[in-house]
TrEMBL record:
GO cellular component entries: ribonucleoprotein complex; ribosome
GO molecular function, one term: structural constituent of ribosome
Protein name as annotated: 50S ribosomal protein L5
Organism: Candidatus Iainarchaeum sp
Domain called Large ribosomal subunit protein uL5 C-terminal: residue spans: 60-158
Keywords: Ribonucleoprotein, Ribosomal protein
Pfam families, per database record: Ribosomal_L5, Ribosomal_L5_C
InterPro entries from the UniProt entry: Ribosomal_uL5, Ribosomal_uL5_C, Ribosomal_uL5_dom_sf, Ribosomal_uL5_euk/arc-type, Ribosomal_uL5_N
GO biological process, one term: translation
Amino acid sequence: MTAINQVKVEKVVINMGVGADEGKMKKAIQVMNTIAGKNGVKTSSNLRIPDWGVRPGVKLGLKLTLRKKEAEEFLKKALTAKENKIPEKSFDKEGNFGFGIKEHISVPGVKYDPKIGIMGFDVLVSLKKKGYRVKYRKIKQRTVGKKQRVSKNEAIEFVKTLGVEII
């Protein structure tokens, strides 16, 4: 792999689904703050599901996007919580991958708080190569060429360089 086509972490998104309970939402905000050092953004429903008591506008979850150095540091901690093992089916054909952590206290440096309890969250990672910005820039926006897209195999090789075992 040349230096031009080197795979990098574009962003890491942390998701927590908590439901419509406001008390759980406050606990989730505390958990997000302890695991990532930042407060998340509340996400709301767009659908109406009467059986579940869900209607448009109800706050159901929390998300946080990390980029650059923060993303890489958090990814290393989250992979440690997963014992540095990810199944191959967690990768998509575009090179993105995700995994869930059942207990937030398994993240290094996080201690159990009986007021909060134990909460789980999902970690979604988006990878990119140099030159991927042409898709998002304002002037002369273009589609990304095949060489600049991250394939599933390249994503797996990148994750292996972080010391992760693919199962």
